[in-house]
Write a structure and sequence with these properties.
Blueprint (H helix, E strand, L loop, with lengths): L4 E3 L1 H7 L3 E4 L4 H8 L3 E7 L6 H5 L3 E12 L12 E3 L4 H11 L13 H17 L3 E6 L2 E9 L2 E7 L9 H16 L3 E4 L6 H9 L3 E13 L7
Helix pairs in contact: 1-5, 4-5, 6-7
Amino acid sequence: MTEYLEPTPWDKRNFLIDTYQLTEYSEAALQQTSETEGHFTLKVSPSADTQNLVKYGFYYVDTLTEPVCSRSRLDTVHQEGIQFSREYDPEKILDIAAEAFSGGRFHRDFNIPDYMADRRYRNWVGDLMEQDQILALHFEDKTAGFFAYEKDKILLLGMHKDFRGRGLAKAFTSACVEEQFRITGYDRLKTSISPSNPASLNVFISLGFRLNGAVDIYHKLNGSLPVGG
């Protein structure tokens, strides 16, 4: 039964229903989603024929571009007073995560209540803290943000609302990228950004990142969520 469906337990705990990602885009895989109750994610090329997606009840939720940058291409922007630390108040990091990522694909999914989408980000950040994959960003003696990474991938970069709109985005992002180059030793980093977040995308491009392709993301809900859980 699960030949084409890969369980995603990190999503199941948030939505309280079985969740899966499809391992391939074929009619047999799509048919299996009609025979299984749950919430499904499928990533396809933007040039893919989507006729069967509509036929089997999938709906578009987002596109993810992949900006990449080599160490030599990074255009650094320095800002005095930026510091990184693995010592931080977890609740402050979780508070930033709760309100900084309101435009993600699960927030855009009309079948997912906002509180469930918020919970998914908080739990993901909680996991990353446990795995020591988060660094707090301190500025003016305050926790101004954080970034999360895994090997050569920039996973998340969040700024506290009090530090947005102050012209610090480029300096903060530049500092995070430089720090990840330093601590991981990789010569090339990548990240994923939705075109629905042009401010973030423009910051990365201004620092020397170049787009390296994109994928469209579709969801499907077969069954119902226990709303209120």
